[in-house]
Amino acid sequence: MPDIPLVPAHWRFPAQPASVRRARHAVAASLPDVLRPRLGADLSLLTSELVTNAIRHGACWADEEFIELVLWPADGHYWLAVSDPGAGRPVLARPGVESESGRGLVLVDSLAAAWAVRPRPTCGTSVIAGLSLQRGGG
């Protein structure tokens, strides 16, 4: 009989700044205890950056839109997908030292073993990032 995979964790949050903290706590709480020392801090930072970007650039607060998160283990990684209803495509930029913003995807690029931007089947965009389970001397 084949191994049955874990069901991915899934959340929906209002596209509001308060959701960043809620999303970070939800994702951290769903990570198995044994993996928290290796992945917890980086997964929390990834969550914060991706959710913040989705709220700022991919959703309209006034329209009561939502962002969605999915977390799942596969192929030696923990994958996080953050989706928003926006049509824009996030792009990795290298802001100058004087810039006050624009470093979110730089952090994602630095932390993640792999990441990509994908259109959603119906509408919107997903940013997917994976952290290696071997991270931190695992």
From TrEMBL:
Domain of life: Bacteria
Membrane spanning stretches: none
Keywords on record: Kinase, Serine/threonine-protein kinase, Transferase
Organism of this sequence: Streptomyces varsoviensis
CDD domains: HATPase_RsbW-like
Record protein name field: Regulator
Entry annotated with the keyword Kinase: yes
Ranges where the Histidine kinase/HSP90-like ATPase domain occurs: 13-124
Residues spanning the signal sequence: none
